[in-house]
Amino acid sequence: MNESYFEVIRPGINTTFQDLGRKNLYHIGVPFSGAMDNRNYTLANAIVGNKINAPAIEFAFQGPLLKLRGETIIFNITGNITFNILKKNKTIEGNCYQSYILEDGDELDIASTNNSVYGYLAIGGSFDIEAQWDSFSTNIKAKIGPNDGKKIEKDQMIKIISANSKTSTRKLDYLNTKIENIRVIKGTNFNYFSAESKKNFFDKEFSVTKLSDRMGMRLEGIKLKNDVDTNIKSEGIIKGVIQVPSDGNPIIMLSDHGTIGGYPKIGVVISADYDKLVQLPPGSKIKFKEIDLASAELLFKLYQMETMNLVSKIK
User: Fold this and answer.
1) pLDDT tens digits, one per residue of 168-211
2) What is the CA radius of gyration of the chain?
């Protein structure tokens, strides 16, 4: 058997290995991490016949340019992505949610995301990487995970093991959609804020700034006034928490967030809306809508059912 690998000609922007994240490590300061958009990550693996939690390559805005060396593989890309397959004699314009065959010498050029942020590349088989704490997720700021906790780099070789080219090519008819409002439940410090600010939080629009990454999404808009204390004793935080520092501009904690924080928490984005939230590029407008905890739990169950229903429709 010949050794198979991707040669990284262009690494892209923030290209890392991810899976569904690592559990039960908050007590030592390690967050879940994992794929930002869980649905698109899940569909990427399902289309090539992998286990749901197999490692995939996540990229932001611009993806990598990869050249395959070795055995034939199948792959697919999910998200709203422009990509091309460069063969010796022709260029194939790729479609998301459809698997393709790559042969020795072929190049995969993941040019860009389209009015979105994250995309996923899954191959039929496995990348030759090591798990850390039972996860293949990479947290580059903490240097945790495969690839020495780093982004994928130019001229790197990404080795492939157990390449599977026998699975027939498959596809899914799926269209990513936008959401008008991001639904939230009230945070534990909601009553720290003035009556006017609490009303503005749900009535006014906020803009996604360029100061956003896998750790957090900074927003700007009308300033939220804190009447009690702009700093509190640091306490545990979770993905989706909306903190408000002294400048009055909200920050939404994302997958690589710190596990404690000392800014008051005005709300928490519900899990069912998280995938769509993280796909909002800088300049996007956000409007929050309040729901209660019971509704949030129901919506998450429906989100999970819809994802599994999509997996069952792959042909």
Assistant:
1) 789 999 999 888 899 999 999 999 999 999 999 999 999 999 99
2) 20
Q: Extract long-range pairs of 84-93: CB within 8 Å, 24+ residues apart.
A: 84/108, 84/109, 84/111, 85/109
- Name the residue ranges covered by the structural domains of the chain: 4-161, 182-311
CA 137 – CA 103 distance, rounded (Å): 27
113 in Cβ contact with 87 (< 8 Å): no
Cα distance between residue 117 and residue 139, in whole Å: 17
pTM summary value: 0.95
Structural contact between residues 137 and 33, judged by C-beta atoms closer than 8 angstroms:
yes
Predicted confidence (pLDDT) per residue in 13-30, tens digit? 999 999 999 998 888 888
Residues 6+ apart with CB under 8 A from 244: 193, 224, 226, 230, 250, 251, 263, 264, 265, 266
Beta bridge partners of 10: 65
What single string gives the DSSP state of each residue in 243-283? E--TTS--EEE-TT--SEE-S-EEEEE-HHHHHHHHTPPTT
Considering the domain delimited by 182-311, tell me its CATH architecture: Beta Barrel (2.40)
Residue 163 pLDDT exceeds 80: no
Longest dimension (CA), the chain: 68
The count of other CB atoms within 10 Å of the CB of residue 305 is 10
Return the closest-CA partner of residue 270 out of 306, 308, 299.
299
The residues near 22 (Cβ < 8 Å, ≥ 6 apart) are 30, 32, 33, 34, 132, 133, 134, 135, 137
Q: How many of the other CB atoms lie within 10 Å of CB of 13?
A: 15
215 DSSP 8-state letter: S
DSSP 101-145: EE-TT-EEEEEEESSSSEEEEEESSEES---BTTB---BTTTTBS
